[in-house]
Amino acid sequence: MCCSHAATDSKLPAAPIAEASYSHFFRRFHTPYAVLGHDLTLRQGVFALFFVFCLTPWASPPMALALGLLLAQTLGNPFSTHTRRLTQKLLQFSVIGLGFGMNAQAAVAAGKEGVLFTVASISGTLLLGYFIGKWLGLGRQVVHLISCGTAICGGSAIAAVGPVLRAKDEEMSVALGTVFVLNALALFAFPPIGHILAMTQNQFGLWCAIAIHDTSSVVGAAAAYGDQALQVATTVKLARALWIIPVSVGTALLFKQQGVKVKIPYFILGFVAAMLLNTFVPVAKPLGPVLVQLAKIGLTATLFFIGAGLSVKVVRSVGIRPYILGVLLWLVISTASLFVILHAA
């Protein structure tokens, strides 16, 4: 018995020692080292290496998002303030650049095909969100933010509608956190589903535009499926994003908010201008492939930044009920739109 106790006792310090070693290992990545007169940390170096890789031809949008998520869950994002500020601008410029690879006539045709889906899905999602949110006992403003993010274009819609609602920072964070996590799942899940169902490029692009929240993830998933899917998805999604304006105005009236400004997504006009230049100005056509390639690189970097911002703390801070609302809305809109698209004549 005594020997047994002694043997057991001798093993007890192993766990604390292992934890200490683990903690010491990660502490090294946060320790500043003098490099060429500047204090730099190893985690900054890792971030820089991942970022540079995302600029190479070997990196895909899903891979960039995965690298960002890996960094967020381990070392953390050492430049979170800067990447948060850059993400939206980089996405907007990337979307404009994609316009130089599109034909205006084809875009109009794609836009017409998606308009009925857009109207039905936006109104249906907002209405369904209201009832599910009421059932879950969530605050009215959080419900409306998540519903708008699901119905229109994710974080952009939430950022536009939030000030109209005069939403609190916590409410904005909850809505954005819910949408960004689901975006990450969609980016990985949609292309394999499309291949399993043998969806055409046109079908998949339309499904992405309707069923995935953020423009970044829509473009990323569609780009992984094919160039035609990318064109359809981008055009329909940006046409859908214009609904930010009437929905924001409707929000102000519904919630009886006065004296608020509606944010207009002006970058969509840049996308349209780029598309018109590529279609009708012959001099601009040789620049098209270069600008489109730069736009795709910019999109890949954007997804890396988004992934790097989704830490465990952000995910946990949302709570379970907003995720339930977001998941239920997402499942309904994705399955319903998939059924309609696959069975449309």
TrEMBL record:
<keyword id="KW-1003">Cell membrane</keyword>
<dbReference type="Pfam" id="PF03601">
    <property type="entry name" value="Cons_hypoth698"/>
</dbReference>
<feature type="transmembrane region" description="Helical">
    <location>
        <begin position="264"/>
        <end position="284"/>
    </location>
</feature>
<comment type="similarity">
    <text>Belongs to the UPF0324 family.</text>
</comment>
<keyword id="KW-1133">Transmembrane helix</keyword>
<feature type="transmembrane region" description="Helical">
    <location>
        <begin position="90"/>
        <end position="108"/>
    </location>
</feature>
<feature type="transmembrane region" description="Helical">
    <location>
        <begin position="174"/>
        <end position="197"/>
    </location>
</feature>
<dbReference type="InterPro" id="IPR018383">
    <property type="entry name" value="UPF0324_pro"/>
</dbReference>
<feature type="transmembrane region" description="Helical">
    <location>
        <begin position="204"/>
        <end position="226"/>
    </location>
</feature>
<feature type="transmembrane region" description="Helical">
    <location>
        <begin position="323"/>
        <end position="344"/>
    </location>
</feature>
<feature type="transmembrane region" description="Helical">
    <location>
        <begin position="46"/>
        <end position="70"/>
    </location>
</feature>
<feature type="transmembrane region" description="Helical">
    <location>
        <begin position="142"/>
        <end position="162"/>
    </location>
</feature>
<protein>
    <submittedName>
        <fullName>Sulfate exporter family transporter</fullName>
    </submittedName>
</protein>
<keyword id="KW-0812">Transmembrane</keyword>
<feature type="transmembrane region" description="Helical">
    <location>
        <begin position="290"/>
        <end position="311"/>
    </location>
</feature>
<keyword id="KW-0472">Membrane</keyword>
<feature type="transmembrane region" description="Helical">
    <location>
        <begin position="238"/>
        <end position="255"/>
    </location>
</feature>
<feature type="transmembrane region" description="Helical">
    <location>
        <begin position="114"/>
        <end position="133"/>
    </location>
</feature>
